[in-house]
């Protein structure tokens, strides 16, 4: 994925020039007495640049300028960016707002890549992406200095240029095992890779946590990795709502240092009576200090030259300000998985050697169209990842025969028998009515007597016999249509649909409990990730989230063009970051429109209409990136907000295991 | 566009009776036999004129399948009018009317105007419910009744507009407090003499001034 061309950057003319200038910026740092005197004694400022600015909005008056520094301490390099105090011409921009973006001593071991942008008009800027996949807002160098910045970084940290994009510099991207080892010796352990809360949790599984952290550190990119697997077990021991909020904010704070100022603000919103505010704040403070003392001890404990003393500014709650959180975004989307790369995932007998790597690859880029027929069969679970070519051939033939047997069950019902079989006639009638109202504008399904429409009918009716209890419900044809379009084979489409329905079947339960549990989980996640929006929905009687009903029922099928739906589905089906990424997709979309929703004070009816009319207006890639970022931010607290067994999680017997753990704790 | 009133309508009835087609015929004046089945709810709107006043109809077209009833129930809130639709060629869609009506009575405003529509009257040769039966059901339950065809457009205008006329009359008779939006009526910014504040309750009982 991250194929890199490890070559010396000195072949780059920019770098030759920049290296020479590098030292001058170090000297300049001495001119600032205050900064040098207040930095930790053993820390050395190796780069300092003034007028490095972020643009939180498109309005020039809301830009925030500050000072960017690289600080060397021991063998580690840290980056800080501190906004200037009180120079803002815009009264709307409070100190709190500025603090939100402050970057305090981020170690380069936490940084995955730096992208340099050189627009034809305007300032050069860089985007720093963390190993967790999150990114800082673009830093605009108003006074130049991007080259020196990168050159200085290069002097202290191993960076390589991405072979895919010459403007992307990968940090800590070690292909060579020797380098990896060296690096793990040199670089400080960091918690930035996903679970900062685990180290200060006095949970009984502390040993496990430590082990996990050890593995996390050396892995190049693992914000999902092993951390996700222990989530639920650990979460069971501590989950008061307040803790959840704090910890989620701690993750945001990794990016923006948003937490300290905003945590209390959020709790002011949450706790109407205002009691407990100071308590929760001090709790957050305590946790932060714990975290810092374990991991960033020297720099965090020492008073860094911070011209701003963070204060709690009692700003009247303006929820729209929280939109700034959308500055946190996920990784850039990749190109879809192609044939050549696909074959590299297979061994000589056709087994998939590393299913997780495959899923991750598909999560970030999807699959080329001509590969979908093969790959979807794995993603949906029709093929098992460890099956060989020969085994799959065998499965196909066995399953085709099995399909024909089930299909024959309804095909053999005579008209006389049907007369006395109301349930059958009703189902058949519903399906007949619906298949002619499913994607008929697509050439694959258009026209009279289209054989593919007939296949939709036959597969759905066969499914209603295969799963007689569930039967047929509207929405199923929407889910089957793309699968048949891709599989182009009746039996294979049927079995892939069966696999999908193992997960999504509860969406169609008569009592709608599958839908209600997802809508409930969605409301919990919004509460966690955007409490002002949650409060807004609460006040406006919108907490049933029915306005997201269609999104969830048929996996956004009606919201995107057909080809985008195919892309979204294969990404969702990887279950790479979460089985419930679709809920984060919901939140990502809602967050994009939260300003409008709250600003226009939409009531339930208006909101429902507004959401309905977003159909066809949603850009998939940015939403997926936001969803990824939200999922990472929510982390274990997000997973804990989703009750076990919530679709599309498989209704596995593990639910009883969770139950047991609960009992043990109690 | 400015309007004197906005009425919220909801179209209900079994799946496949032609709810979306009726809406499309009313808003776009066309019949499209091939369109995607409704999931959740779809919206349509059209301006009409009653008593020289511009009235905007905002129409909620709901999914008909039984499984979605619990969701559909949340759409009744604040509807001023409902079109309860059955298919004259499918007896069962007529048989289910009582349960639809029960939902409407339970979840909608008591003063909601309900129009019963026997759709697909162009398919007279396949008729399974007689006009008299429809009339009888409407009479028993206090509904307005019409047979219509979304395909030929027969009675489609009338169905929507007569419903609006009934609602309008209720406003004039003072049945509704139009300043209370739970009745499914919003007072607009245009067309009401003496009303400058739109939703201003003090003028909202008006309308009668024109007669």
TrEMBL record, chain A:
Organism expressing this protein natively: Lactuca virosa
Source domain of life: Eukaryota
Subcellular localization: Cytoplasm
Region Disordered: start-end pairs: 1-42, 193-242, 269-291
Chief localization: cytoplasm
Function recorded in the entry: Acts as a GTPase activating protein for RAB7A. Does not act on RAB4, RAB5 or RAB6.
Protein name: TBC1 domain family member 15
Regions of compositional bias (Low complexity) in chain numbering: 15-38
Compositionally biased residues, Polar residues: 193-208, 215-232
Residue ranges of every copy of the Rab-GAP TBC domain listed in the record: 366-576
TrEMBL record, chain B:
Keywords carried by this UniProt record: GTP-binding, Lipoprotein, Membrane, Nucleotide-binding, Prenylation
Entry-linked SUPFAM superfamilies: P-loop containing nucleoside triphosphate hydrolases (SSF52540)
UniProt key word Nucleus: no
Topological type in the membrane: Lipid-anchor
Pfam families with a match to the protein in the record: Ras
Broad class of the protein's primary localization: membrane
A single GO molecular function term of this UniProt record: GTP binding
InterPro entries per the UniProt record, alphabetical: P-loop_NTPase, Rab_GTPases_membrane_traffic, Small_GTP-bd, Small_GTPase
GO CC aspect terms: plasma membrane
Xref: Gene3D superfamilies: P-loop containing nucleotide triphosphate hydrolases (3.40.50.300)
Subcellular location: Cell membrane
Family of the protein in this entry: Belongs to the small GTPase superfamily. Rab family.
Protein role: Intracellular vesicle trafficking and protein transport.
Name by which UniProt lists this protein: Uncharacterized protein
């Amino acid at each position: 994925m991250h194929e890199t061309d490890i070559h010396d950057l000195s072949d780059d003319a920019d770098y030759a020039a920049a290296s020479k200038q590098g030292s001058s910026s170090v000297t300049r740092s001495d001119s600032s007495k205050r900064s040098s005197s207040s930095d930790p004694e053993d820390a050395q400022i190796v780069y300092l640049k003034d007028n490095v600015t972020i643009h939180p909005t498109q309005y020039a008056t809301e830009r925030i300028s500050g000072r960017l520094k690289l600080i060397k301490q021991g063998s580690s390099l840290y980056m800080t960016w501190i906004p200037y105090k009180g120079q803002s011409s815009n009264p709307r921009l409070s100190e709190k707002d500025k603090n939100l973006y402050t970057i305090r001593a981020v170690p380069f071991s936490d940084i995955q890549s730096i992208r340099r942008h050189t627009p034809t008009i305007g300032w050069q800027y860089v985007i720093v992406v963390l190993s967790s996949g999150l990114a800082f807002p673009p830093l605009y160098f108003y006074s130049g200095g991007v080259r020196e910045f990168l050159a200085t970084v290069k002097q202290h940290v191993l960076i390589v240029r991405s072979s895919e994009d010459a403007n992307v510099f990968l940090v800590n991207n070690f292909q060579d095992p020797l380098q990896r080892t060296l690096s793990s010796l040199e670089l400080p352990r960091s918690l930035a890779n996903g679970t900062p809360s685990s180290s200060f949790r006095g949970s009984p599984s502390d040993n496990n946590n430590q082990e996990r952290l050890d593995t996390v550190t050396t892995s190049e990119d693992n914000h999902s990795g092993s951390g996700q697997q222990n989530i639920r077990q650990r979460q069971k021991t501590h989950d008061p709502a307040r803790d959840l909020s704090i910890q989620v904010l701690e993750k945001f704070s990794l990016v923006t240092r948003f937490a300290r100022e905003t945590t209390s603000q959020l709790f002011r919103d949450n706790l109407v009576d205002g009691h407990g505010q100071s308590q929760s704040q001090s709790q957050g403070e305590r946790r932060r200090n714990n975290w810092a003392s374990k991991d960033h001890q020297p720099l965090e404990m020492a008073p860094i030259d911070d011209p701003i003393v963070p204060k709690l500014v009692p700003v009247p709650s303006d929820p729209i300000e929280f939109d700034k959180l959308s500055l946190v975004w996920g990784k850039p989307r990749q190109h879809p998985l192609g044939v050549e790369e696909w074959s590299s995932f297979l061994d000589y007998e056709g087994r998939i050697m590393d299913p997780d790597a495959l899923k991750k690859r598909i999560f970030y880029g999807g699959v080329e169209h001509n590969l979908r027929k093969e790959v979807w069969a794995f993603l949906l679970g029709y093929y098992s990842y460890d099956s060989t070519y020969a085994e799959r051939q065998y499965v196909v033939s066995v399953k085709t025969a099995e399909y024909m047997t089930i299909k024959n069950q309804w095909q053999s019902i005579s008209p006389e028998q049907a007369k006395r079989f109301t349930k059958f006639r009703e189902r058949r009638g519903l399906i007949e009515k619906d298949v002619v109202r499913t994607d008929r504008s697509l050439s694959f399904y258009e026209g009279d007597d289209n054989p593919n429409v007939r296949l939709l009918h036959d597969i759905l009716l066969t499914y209603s016999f295969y799963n007689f209890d569930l039967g047929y419900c509207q929405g199923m044809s929407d889910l089957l249509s793309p699968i048949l379009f891709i599989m182009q084979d009746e039996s294979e489409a049927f079995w892939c649909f069966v696999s999908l329905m193992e997960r999504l079947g509860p969406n169609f339960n008569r009592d709608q409990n599958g839908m209600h549990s997802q809508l409930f989980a969605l409301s919990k996640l919004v509460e966690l990730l955007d409490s002002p929006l949650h409060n807004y929905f609460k006040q406006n009687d919108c907490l049933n989230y029915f306005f997201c009903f269609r999104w969830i029922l048929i996996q956004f099928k009606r919201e995107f063009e057909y080809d985008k739906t195919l892309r979204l589905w294969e990404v969702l089906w990887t279950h790479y970051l979460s089985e419930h990424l679709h809920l984060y997709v919901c939140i990502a979309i809602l967050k994009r429109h939260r300003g409008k929703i709250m600003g226009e004070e939409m009531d339930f009816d208006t909101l429902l209409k507004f959401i309905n009319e977003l159909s066809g207006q949603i850009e998939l890639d940015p939403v997926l990136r936001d969803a990824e970022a939200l999922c990472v931010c929510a982390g274990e607290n997000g997973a804990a907000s989703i009750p076990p067994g919530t679709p599309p999680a498989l209704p596995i017997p593990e639910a009883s295991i969770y139950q047991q753990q609960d009992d043990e704790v109690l | 566009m400015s309007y004197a009133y906005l009425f919220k309508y909801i179209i209900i009835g079994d799946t496949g009776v032609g709810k979306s087609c009726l809406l499309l015929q009313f808003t776009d004046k066309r019949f499209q036999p091939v369109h995607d089945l409704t999931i959740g709810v779809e919206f349509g709107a059209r301006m009409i004129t009653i008593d020289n006043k511009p009235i905007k109809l905002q129409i909620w077209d709901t999914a008909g399948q039984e499984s979605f009833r619990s969701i559909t129930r949340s759409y009744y809130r604040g509807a001023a009018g409902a079109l309860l639709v059955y298919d004259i060629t499918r007896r069962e869609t007529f048989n289910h009317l009582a349960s639809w009506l029960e939902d409407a009575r339970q979840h909608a405003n008591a003063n909601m105007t309900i129009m019963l529509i026997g759709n697909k009257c162009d398919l007279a040769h396949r008729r399974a419910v007689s006009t008299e039966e429809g009339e009888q059901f409407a009479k028993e339950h206090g509904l307005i009744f019409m047979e219509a065809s979304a395909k030929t457009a027969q009675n489609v205008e009338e169905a929507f507009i007569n419903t609006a006329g009934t609602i309008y009359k209720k406003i004039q008779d003072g049945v509704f407090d139009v300043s209370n939006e739970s009745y499914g009526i919003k007072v607009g910014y245009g067309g009401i003499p003496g009303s400058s504040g739109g939703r201003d309750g003090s003028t909202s009982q008006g309308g009668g001034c024109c007669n």
